[in-house]
Specification:
The chain is mostly helical. 45% of the residues lie in helices and 4% in strands. The strands form 2 sheets. Strands 1-2-3 form a 3-stranded antiparallel beta sheet. A two-stranded antiparallel sheet has the order 4-5. α8 crosses α14. The structure holds protoporphyrin IX containing FE (HEM). Protoporphyrin IX containing FE (HEM) binds next to α3, α8 and β4. Protoporphyrin IX containing FE binds next to α3, α8 and β4.
Length: 338
């Protein structure tokens, strides 16, 4: 009888242990709990404090850090390959030349290393930083999963090949996202990140002067917007100015659903922005987000978690980088024996 009771207790403990693990695939919520020399170290809090203090000095970190997660996860998975320096590394590829936030990640990594050396991956710091950016931008808080390891390879040609360009048609974009396990709803929610940040004229100039090679403007663009963008981006100017992706001037740095309302009013900046409202495969989702800010924010949070799980490296693959900008040096050979 006593033996049976022990087995039953053991089984229920196993069940309890299993249910107390908020796992997502093989990543976990709270992976770093109890992994630092001081068990009380709260890694996510260190990243939060680092990012929020840096954001006070530069609030454009909000869009920069959200985009950084996208550009990391879409090339070799979320493995911090975008952070590696080098003349042929991902960050030198054309789609990455306007990516920002590298110093912010370096600073967060240094703050983490001070209290928890050699334990926290740069890949996870990107994910935590993007969550902080979302919250600082007024978006919904969400639990991030952690436990990623850092990759050893970063190739510009891969970033050029795998990052979608501004003119990507909706069906091709759906295929790219689906190839990474992301649904159409995830895709529309994630493109909703364009509720913050800017685009350079070079990313949308064709829509103003030579839409689809017609020598004319995109007929779907709102006329007032077209006029003002032509002033921002004169046809023959070599200067690459910027325009807000969310044309609501009160919320261009706020993570909310106003971007979806703007694209419904034909005020999308990039080709893909306008297309997701025009395409029958995506416009119902656009409408559902435009009409419900809470719903958009919940779906955005869920989609960021889903994107954060794309092709991650788990122990024993990859490494925990000492510096986010370079792979670790090989271990020193043992001293010659006398
Ligand atoms: C088909 C998908 C997408 C395309 C084609 C696309 C394209 C672009 C382009 C061309 C820019 C402007 C770059 C410039 O001219 O400086 C941009 C900016 C931005 N993108 Fe996307 N994007 C896509 C999806 C996403 C996703 C999934 C996210 C994040 C979840 C994201 C976040 C951002 C942010 C925040 C900015 C503003 C960056 C800043 O202000 O520094 N984008 N995107």
């Amino acid at each position: 009888m006593k033996g049976l009771a022990t087995v039953a207790l053991g089984l229920s403990l196993i069940v309890l242990v299993n249910y107390s693990c908020f796992c997502y695939g093989d990543l976990q919520v709270g992976y770093y709990k109890y992994r630092c020399p001081d068990n009380n170290t709260d890694v996510e809090k260190i990243v939060r404090q680092s990012i929020s203090s840096q954001n006070l000095l530069d609030p454009t970190l909000i869009p920069a850090l959200i985009r950084l997660q996208f550009h990391d996860c879409f090339v070799r998975g979320c493995d911090a390959s975008i952070l590696l320096d080098g003349s042929t590394a991902e960050k030198t590829a054309p789609p990455n030349l306007t990516v920002r936030g590298y110093e912010a990640i370096d600073n967060a990594k240094s703050a983490v290393e001070e209290q928890c050396p050699g334990v926290v991956s740069c890949a996870d710091i990107i994910i935590m930083a993007a969550r902080e950016a979302t919250v600082l931008g007024g978006g919904q808080f969400f639990n991030v999963t952690t436990g990623r390891r850092d990759g050893l390879i970063s190739l510009a040609i891969e970033a050029t090949a795998f990052l979608p360009s501004a003119e990507i048609p909706v069906d091709a974009s759906i295929a790219v996202f689906a190839g990474l396990g992301l649904s159409v709803t995830d895709m529309v929610a994630l493109i909703g990140a364009h509720t913050v940040g800017v685009a350079h004229c070079s990313s949308f100039k064709d829509r103003l002067y030579n839409y689809n090679g017609t020598g004319k403007a995109d007929p779907t663009m709102d006329h007032l917007l077209l006029t003002s963008l032509k002033i921002t981006c004169p046809q023959n100017s070599t200067q690459d100015n910027i325009a807000n992706l969310d044309q609501n001037s009160l919320s261009f740095n706020t993570v909310d659903n106003s971007y979806f309302k703007e694209i419904q009013d034909n005020k999308g900046i990039l080709g893909i922005d306008q297309e997701i409202d025009l395409d029958t495969r995506t416009n119902a989702t656009v409408a559902s987000f435009a009409s419900d800010n809470k719903f958009f924010n919940a779906q955005f949070a869920a989609a960021m978690v889903n994107m954060g799980a794309v092709n991650v490296l788990l122990d024993p693959l990859g490494e925990i980088r000492q510096s986010c900008r370079s792979i670790n040096p090989p271990p020193l050979p043992p001293p010659p024996s006398k």
